[in-house]
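The freezer alarm interrupted the setup, so I double-checked each line after restarting. Inputs confirmed:
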Amino acid sequence: MAMAGLGQWPDALYAATGEETVLTILHTNDMHSRIDPFPADDKRYGGQGGMSQRAALIKSFRQTAQHVVLLDSGDIFQGTPYFNYFGGEPEFRLMSAMGYDAATMGNHDFDAGVEGFARQLPHADFPFLVSNYDFTNTALQGRTKDYTVVKRGRIRIGIFGLGIELHGLVPDTLFGETRYLEPVSIAQQMSNILRYDERCDVVICLSHLGYRYEENKVSDQILAKSTGGIDLILGGHTHTFMEKPEALSNKDGEEVLINQVGWAGLRLGHLELILNPVKRKKWRYETPVIVE
Amino acid sequence: MSIAGRDTLFNSMISPYREQIYAEMNEVIGRVGSDMFKAQPEGELGNWVCDVLLEESEELFGTPADFAVYNYGGLRIDMIAAGPLTQGKLFELLPFENYVVMCTLDAYSTARLLEKIASAGGWPVAGIEMVIDSAGQPADVRIQGVPLRRDATYSVVMNDYMANGGDGMDFMTGQPVETAGVTVRDLVIAHVRKQTAAGQVIGSSLENRIRIE
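Predicted 3D structure, all chains:
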């Protein structure tokens, strides 16, 4: 395009013509090595899911959408013989080919140990974001990131990740010296960095904390209400099928959305963020797309 | 419906992996008599897995266990349909490399375990009957038909994830544990093969092992 390289000029053009920017956010969680669809005799999910099927859906979104980000909230590993035999290699290769921009780690991503996960990392060409695990002295030291900034057109998208408490959930031998850090205060730090230092227009948290609990345990709902500056929490772990995102008020009284799309790659979450010429935000969303 | 999707690039990426495991995973090793579901407080799938553990415990450990218990989250699919049962289906049900263990629990630790089962809304068991009362506590417990005794110890067959304190069960760590050196999945697959060789179908039913009041 002839305008490339002219610095701020395209922004001014958008403002003058009053054009909106639409960011399509596609997301998954807890895919659990479900590379093939569920067999036809499965009473609940027969014929649904499948990574080739998901790839086709994502491709069709990319053909029509203005801007797309594709994200995953963890538990990529474990659940079919593909993982027992290949240790996560096909999952990472297929996700890379689909163009995933980032993912966080779930508890089952430790099922082959920290070393098992690290061994598969060369097959992933997208970053793993986990801001509340300290991997010092483990095979993952320096191999994950706290956050990333993705640019789409004139918008800057800040994305960070949060993992669940591992002790009591994952055998100690598998997570080794990984230290879990309390996620709420770290989430606030990440949000501040992304919003103020990195000047992001939208802040997204990839969370494997779980949607909500009856007991007093940190969850996406608690995270949403206890922090400021996060626009969207894409959750996992509880395998919650949400028909639409839940809108809550954050600690500053601003809106924050939570979404989660079941498990096994049965659904592809689909939200659209519309930014007007002065980057005021508006959400548009539909029920998650059934992958088949 | 076909396994292959619409995207030829992805189909060609997946098929080399699928071909390596397809024959083994699609081997039919048994026949399921009627649909088995994962459910709380009790489901056919959980009853079946615990029945297998309890039944096989004597051969594995020399003495039969008093009861079997399995963490609900350790069963990873919602159902197994009536009809042919493939090896791959049991990989999906029991994907973890968890080993079969026998724990010896005193009455206090047994009570903690029963409280955990009750607070979780009912876990798969065999050899136990109990009620979850309105306060979410275990009540009317029968182990092998006998009420829980304060002076007794119980041998309990389970997976090593639970025995090592998984699912928030720190109280389990440090209890005497014996390991059989076989994963739960391999044991269940071997059991199915035996059943099939003996001309039996696989199945289980609901028996009110755990009821909610």
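Quick read of the result. The longest strand of chain A covers residues 267-275.
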